[in-house]
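Run: sequence + C2E -> complex structure.
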Amino acid sequence: MARAELNEYDSIINNIQDGYFETDLAGSFTYANVAACEICGYPKDEIIGLNYRQYTDATNGKKAFSAFNKIYKSGDAGKLINYEIVRKDGTRRQVEISASLILDRSGKPVGFRGTTRDITNRRQMEENLQRSEERYRTIIDNIEDAYFEVDLKGKFTFVNDALCESLGYFWDELIGMDHRHYAEESTVRELFALFNRVYRTGAPVKAYSFELSRKDGRKGFCEISVTLIRDKQGKPVGFRGIARDVTERKQFEEQIRHLATHDTLTGLINSFMFRELLQENIDYAHRYGKRFALFFMDLDGFKIINDTLGHEAGDQVLVECAARLRRTLRASDCIARLGGDEFVMLLRDVSRLEEVTLLADKILSTIREPVDLGGSEYVVTGSMGISIYPQDGEDVHTLMKTADLAMYSAKEKGKDNFQIFSPEVKPLLHEKSLFGELLRFALERNELFLEYQPRLNLKTGAISGVEALLRWRNPTLGSVAPLQFIPVAESTGQIIPIGRWVLQKACLQNVAWQRQGLARVSISVNISQRQLLDEQLIGDIEDALAESGLDPELLELEIAERTILSNLPRIIDVLKGIKDIGVQLVVDDFGSGYSSLSQIRYFPIDSFKVDRSLISGAPANEISKVVIRAIFEIGKLLDLTVVSEGVETPEQLAFVRASSCDLMQGFYFSKPVSPDEIAALLREHVPRPL
Ligand code: C2E
Ligand code: MG
Ligand code: MG
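>> structure
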């Protein structure tokens, strides 16, 4: 087409989005439409005559030359030549050109014509995409979690190394496999249902755990998160997800559950579990009008063996006694060790006096048989108290209490005998109402005061906080231990005003220390179940903070594990309310009850304090050690601060420090002391790594 004819199409050409141009054989523009001018960045009147060398650098100029030269020599149209141009304003753009020869009437080449397109943005996008794809691949290959993609039928279409490893298959074996290859039938059904749900709702599923079988037949636990893959049109084409091997965590949890319900030394159930079983038996006996007996035994002279022959000998005696009790009683009877040298037994079908007497005699005589300790024989005896349901108590507490009282009278009667509870010892039970009576006035008569126990950071050795502990000194009763009067205050409700007072006092005290220029430490206050469920609690905390001016961050509330895990409604809301004020939450006495770590993670807590009973087992006891380490480990996983409570010996300290515990509290560093003594400690204590 000649120039003149072309001009007729000028307006059309100027309206197309791609650049259209014509050049002479040397590569100088003879024509350019609006788009071509824009791409090159020159106005229309300057572009005519402009040579390609003027708007390319040397490298790109060569590239352009050879491409056009090829077209000239071959006569073929050059498809999609790419190079970079430099616009008039100096900016650089990527262009894509397709060009062909312009021939005159005799067929002689006179120039080139072609279209051009600015592909800078597209290039950029392509590069980004490629880079992100590479990045994505590296991440997938390197993550420890297993990554997979499956098609709509559940067959693997992509797996990373971690997945191959955890299932024990090679990559090419896995591709094409579905759930049936690595899960039992019932699990397969669950998995299909799970994927189906993701398919139907489009909503991802998080942390779904199931049991899997590896290629070698070993079982494991795995937790998967799954999302839907859609194609460009939004149509589901498969699923992708992450799988995590949680076998070890499951085993930890199992171990911990066992620990929470069993005595690690003897393997008998512990006091917590025993109380649960006792409650179940009471319910049953109540419903069917049955009776049963509770035997409460304390060893005589055990302390002497422990003190003279050492703890190991003491442990051996306890293990031996447990074994003998097991041999003497039926498999269906419950035997528990309550701690120390106290054992308790629940005998379901024994309630008539003759049966009880016969069995009690039998137990005491097996206990009386000599124990071999390192070649020498020692005799240990037991004193036993017996209570009968329902006559000696209709609830757990009373039944245990009456058996305990009967046991004391057996001790008084010269040990190595048993006593069945009789109402003569009952007056002692009034202790509870006596406490209640006297406690009512304790606050107003200034009989209550606080002591404080410091807590050390194990890394720096600095004092990081103190725990406020309530004390009661009464003119009639003398000093009463918190474990004796706090349960009473709980049951009468007096813990509410008392607890409010503790909060105020502790916050004020902490501010007082700060005013003396001492180090900023946190103060922790124990909150019992009754308080936690009190509607006023949040208000009380806010008041105590406002009155004292204490930074909320420096206040910690300690709540016992059994309260947190009590499944009472509202607990989680109250905890959230407390967190909203900015106060720290600590789970106290962790590991003393049902320590379900999998449950703990759903609560908004900052740290947990491992119970003294666990710490006292370490480092002598291997199982305690394993379990404590597991608890610490999981604490770390959940990003919680871990505190050890009741550290008394250098060995315990060394153990908890080596097991990467964060904080410790215990007699080894300091007993609970007065505010002045804390001030002196804060002033004089030189932090050094412990
Ligand atoms: P807790 O909160 O677990 O407090 C720790 C207890 O362990 C304290 O007993 C403390 O004196 C003791 N302790 C600390 N280190 C060691 C150690 O190395 N060895 C030994 N053998 N014991 C150690 P305490 O003062 O008798 O308090 C007992 C419990 O009474 C507390 O247990 C807490 O649950 C409760 N309690 C104390 N003060 C309050 C309070 O103000 N309000 C409420 N609701 N409960 C409180
Ligand atoms: Mg505490
Ligand atoms: Mg505690």
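>> summary
DSSP finds 27 helices and 26 strands in the chain. The chain has four domains: 3-124, 143-245, 254-425, 440-619+672-684.
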